[in-house]
Amino acid sequence: MPTLASSKGLFLIRLHPSSPHLLEKRVTSLCADTIQSIKALAIHHETCHCPPFDMRTVQYQLPNLDLLLDRHSRPSYKVNPNEPGLEKEFTAFLDKLQNVISPFQRKEIEGAQLPLCAAAYAPDADIQKLRVYLDYFVLLLLVEVMSDVSNAQAGMFDLDFMINLLNACADNQPFDTSKQKDPLVNLTARFARKCFPPLAPSYRDDATQGTISYLQAAAQENYDRTNRAAFTVDSYIAHRRKVVAISPVIAFNRWMARISLSHEILQTPPLQGLLEAAVDLIALSNDLISYKKEKQQGEDIHNLVSVAMADPAIPVKSGDIQAGLDFAGSKIAEAYSRFQQCKLDALAQLASDDLETRSEILCYVDTLLETIDGNIVWQIDPRTVRYHLFETPEEREHWLVSIHVED
User: Fold this and answer.
1) Is the model's pLDDT at 54 over the cut of 80?
2) How would you label 339-370 residue by residue, b for 16+ Cβ within 10 Å and e otherwise?
3) Fewer CB within 10 Å, N or C, the chain?
């Protein structure tokens, strides 16, 4: 979540370091034929689901997120019906960027299924607000592409510059990008000006500052990845909360749902606990869904399943993938229990006659649940090739996952 680019972003979308467009940067000194061969191999690596010769495929039982999150109690949830139209508009937009992004970057962007993500996260938004929402997801993807590990190591990403850009664009103030060589910088400024200013100040401040906090944490995560920082389960979950861009996403959701809870109420312990539990439910569910792909790409060190197998305080043996998956499921169940308790605590703190605030809190809870449900729907959809979780309808029905493991 962005993964949003290859740690986990969502945001959850980060481009994996072995992505073809990053290989393109690293091999510019090679002859053209060699470059094309490497690109072809990279594309084959990402699209072929056949295990290498020294590996075998094992089927594991995933914790059933539909049951863990009681999704059957919310049968009215549906993906926003404006999604097909939004997808067409987005495709037309990408067609206009042929001189800005490479075919490989376009492949990554299309694979993220951002229109579906927006429509799944905001099932009731009108088309105008849904467009603003999609613009924000595009913004997240752009800054994550630019802040990728390779760019950071090459000195091509200036975090302070990006923070200043976001603050200026959010306030519709001028900001000079003329000295920036990366064409994605101007595109980022364009989308920041499209997605932040339509929000009322209270929502806009939360969305902007939440995005900045996320970028700062993602930059630290890039450093941690290159230094292979070790995590315990507790430290990993605390870290994970910082590097998933859900808090700013929820600020947009509050705006779309016209939730007018005051800053003071949102900062009370029950409401803060509610938000933290929602972030955990989204982030840890992503760990389950993304584990298959990360394991097969050797990028699973920053995943709760692998952290549980490495933490000596956790009764999960090293290499016991099924036990690691089960443990991750238990942490998701704990987070959902916390979510429900925080909802009760938030309502209990109100005066009995404060019906307006009670209604606002219940609307906020429903909005968070829609975001949680939408996150799952988006990630397991077959069109979201980033994860390619289920390979058959039977696997989807029974929450089974086939993973390539070493013999």
Assistant:
1) no
2) beebbeebeeeeeeeeeebeebbebbbebbbb
3) C
